[in-house]
Every structure is written in C-alpha cells, then in structure tokens.
Amino acid sequence: MSRFRLLNPEGMPAPRGFTHAVVAPPGTTVFVAGQIGCDAAGAIPSSDLVEQFEAALRHVARAVAAAGGAPETIARLTIYVTDIVEYRARLKGLGQAYRRVMGRHYPAMALVEVKSLFVPNAKVEMEATAVL
Description:
Elements: E1 5-7, E2 21-24, E3 29-36, H1 49-66, E4 74-81, H2 84-89, H3 91-102, E5 108-113, E6 124-131
Parallel strand pairs: 4-5
Antiparallel strand pairs: 1-2, 2-3, 3-6, 4-6
C-alpha cells in the first residue's frame, strides 16, 4: 500500500505510466505531473500555443482541486515550451489565459525551453506543486 494518495481526476486523459497528482502525507503537499494542452481523450485539439497553455493550466488546476486545493494553493509552477520565441511573441494572450485560470495568484515559476515534448504536437507542458 502506497503512503501517497494518487489522483487521476475525471475529465483528464487516462494516464499511461504516471499519475496526474500525488498527495504526500499528511495530505498537505500535492505534486502535479506534467500536463499538456490535450482533451479528455489525450488528443491535442489545437496547434495554438495560447489554447494549449490554457488547457494545460486547467489540467493543473483540476488535479489540485481533486486533492482539495485551489489555484491559490499552487506554490510552484514549471512551464516547458518548445519555442521560447513564440512564447515571448504571445505574452499578452498567455497572460490573459493565465489570469482566467489562476486569477492574480503568481507562485514561484520557471520557464524552460525544450527541444520537444513526449506527445507530438504539444507546445507546452506544466508541472506544479501545491501546498494545501
């Protein structure tokens, strides 16, 4: 029996080889696995960076909510993108998408450019840590 509570919320794609969120005892820290801008079936419905960003962030928020948290309980957010130039060019839309999901809560964040992500056509992936 695991000492962790493993969460795979409805409305998110079925995980393969990972868990969407892990709650550490005594239930105060939540580690959210990398989330991409996919639909519930795991398909990426849009090639638009802003749409993928918002969908990935909504998945992060959904995983935290399944553990009993809210966006403002997210303490750390790491964002991986495949094109930093495109990210910089879309900052206004990305900021609007961020505020739709997170409001004015800004956790410790890092932005990292990577060559590619595991899922083809994914432009962004996010992982987070929340403290309940």
